[in-house]
Structure formats: C-alpha cells, structure tokens
Here is the input.
Amino acid sequence: MFDIIEKGQKLDLSVVSKQGGSGKFYFGAGWDNPSGPVDLDIVAVMLDSSGKITKKADLIYFGNKTQAGVTLSADNTTGEGDGDDESIVIDTSLIPSDVDSIVVGLAAYSGNEDLATAPNAHFRVCDGEAEGADQIGAVHLSDAAASDTVVAAFTLTRSSEGLWELQNTEQFHQLGNGSRAIESFGEHYA
Here is the structure.
C-alpha cells in the first residue's frame, strides 16, 4: 500500500507502482446529491514538451471521451450512486510520443455549484485501471475556496527516459460553470 501523496508531492511511478514505469492509472471522482442533482465533470488535457495543448482533440471531457491511452467514463450529471461517480483511465503505454504530460482535473458544471460546496466530494488516483485498485493520491476538495469551480488535480509527466511521474498539483481556479469551465481548463494550457 502507498502513502497518499499530498499537494506538491511527486511519485516516481517506475519505483512505486506495481506496474513499473508505465501502466494504467484510474482517476475517480464522487459526490452526493442530498438537495438535488449536482454535476461535476472530470477533464484532462494532453500537453506537449512546452506544456501546451496542441489540438482541440487533446482536451478530454464528456463531449470528447477518448484519445489514445485515455478513456473517460459516462457523464454522471446527478451524483447519484455510491463510490466514484465518474472516472478516467490513463494507459501510459498507449500515450502518443508527442505527449509529455497529462493534467487531470475536476470541474463544477452545474449552474451555481463550486467545488467548496459540492456535497461529500472526493477526487483520487489509483495504481491500476479499476475503482478498487490501491489509492495513491487524493485531492482535498475541502481546500477549495468559495467560487473555485475547477481544480487541476494531478499531473502525469513523462521523463526523457520514457518513465512516468505523478504529481498532486491541487491548483484551484475560478473559471465559471458549464461549458465555460471545461473550455477554460483547456485554454489555461493553450
């Protein structure tokens, strides 16, 4: 079992992952809906060596769920159900060679929601491709300030040797709601 990496910490996945330097990693988010539907969305962006998104297709969200090595689950718009409500699996062995890093985040899509008030929200990463795999990182969504609608939570970075490192970045942003939050997440890396 891993120590959970806290904000700012990095893990060399070639050393600590049961899968070695590359493998599949599961990112899961969950929340509750005691007062009605709440819509949070996992987003990811694939970046080149300069840390920039080079094409619109490299923004992964509910309207673009699959890219080489990256697969997003169905869009849960209510928060109903136990465990993780949405997930994304990244298979680092299938990531194109022109992608040097992937930032995975979470956006509050619902009209007036923010991450600080989303009921019982969590966001985590596991060493494997399923919800039950060993958890290796978690973002404390309770650290979000009022009006923080997006968090750039985790960054996977490929080294010059082709090995992957995971960092808990936990950077909160006030980027609005709805499609604007998703677009702004991608534009942040343009």
Summary: The CA atoms of residues 69 and 94 lie 5 Å apart. The chain has two helices and twelve strands. The chain has one domain: 10-187. The first helix runs from residue 13 to 16.
